[in-house]
Design brief:
The protein contains eight helices and twelve strands. By secondary structure, it is α/β, with parallel strands linked by helices.
Length: 265
């Protein structure tokens, strides 16, 4: 009898061992550490993507997407709010595992980062306090002080196409960037369209106007990706599959409609 019981127990253990192995197939160790915890960088103050609401809770599209992604991956997540300019260095140093912070692809960033499939798309926009009377582009802009976010794609593009005839000033967050334009420290600003839209929507005084051109001369439609260190790029297939599932299930669409009156993808 004891031999039969022992044989049965061995069979059960073998079954569950095989079952666990099957479940683990396709699960990258980086996305499923022994602690079952991923540290995810989000922007510190970037409406409507990551910010503190009136109840003192961190909310926003990126925050919600990070939580959905962690649920899909079946891991716990710890959100780490950082100013944008510190996010990529934090990934490179291993201080955070992923960033969900509207990070777009560039060749320079790709030297140290691995990029997921896009999780939203947006256009850059120029915003000022009044119309300039001409189409704002790299050929027409001269003598302007243009504000933008430090470390952003917009900063990089302005330095390449506008810096020769204009002054480019940068800020850590959008709130200070808009204050610079409102106070006259800057003539106009270049922002991501979705972030810029949020500030225009909340501008009850009518201080700001969307200028008569999109920033297509500066940047075409750009894509935001979930990013990680290039050292862990083997995790991309599983990460992309999780993002795809969120879009397919409708969870992504429900989250998007909480923050935007249109689909942002």
């Amino acid at each position: 009898m004891n031999k039969l019981v022992s044989a049965f127990l061995v069979a059960v253990l073998c079954f569950f061992s095989s079952f666990s192995t099957a479940l683990a197939e396709g699960r990258d160790a980086f996305l499923h550490p022994e602690s079952n915890l991923l540290k995810i960088a989000v922007e510190e103050d970037y409406r409507p993507f990551s910010y503190i609401d009136s109840s003192g809770t961190r909310v926003g599209f990126d925050v919600g997407f990070a939580k959905l992604l962690c649920t899909q991956l079946r891991v716990k997540c710890e959100l780490v709010p950082l100013v944008f300019s510190k996010i990529i260095p934090a990934i490179d140093a291993g201080e955070v595992d992923l960033a969900i912070a509207s990070v777009g692809y560039t060749k320079e960033r790709a030297r140290i980062l691995a990029f997921s499939q896009p999780y939203f798309r947006s256009r850059s926009v120029f915003i000022g306090t009044h119309e300039l009377g001409y189409e704002l582009n790299s050929a027409s802009a001269s003598g302007l002080t243009i504000a933008t976010q430090v470390g952003s794609l917009q900063e990089e593009a302005l330095k390449q196409g506008f810096a020769e005839k204009n002054k480019i000033i940068t800020f850590d967050d959008y709130a200070d960037m808009f204050k610079a334009v409102a106070s006259g420290k800057a003539d106009v600003l270049l922002a991501d369209g979705l972030g810029g839209y949020q500030y225009l929507k909340e501008d009850k005084s009518g201080t700001f106007v969307l200028l008569n051109t999109l920033g297509v001369d500066v940047l075409p439609m750009d894509s935001a990706c979930v990013v990680m260190s290039k050292r862990h790029e083997t995790a991309l297939p599983e990460l992309n599959e999780a993002i795809y599932h969120l879009k397919l299930s409708g969870e992504y669409q429900m989250l998007s409609l909480q923050y935007f009156p249109f689909m942002n993808y």
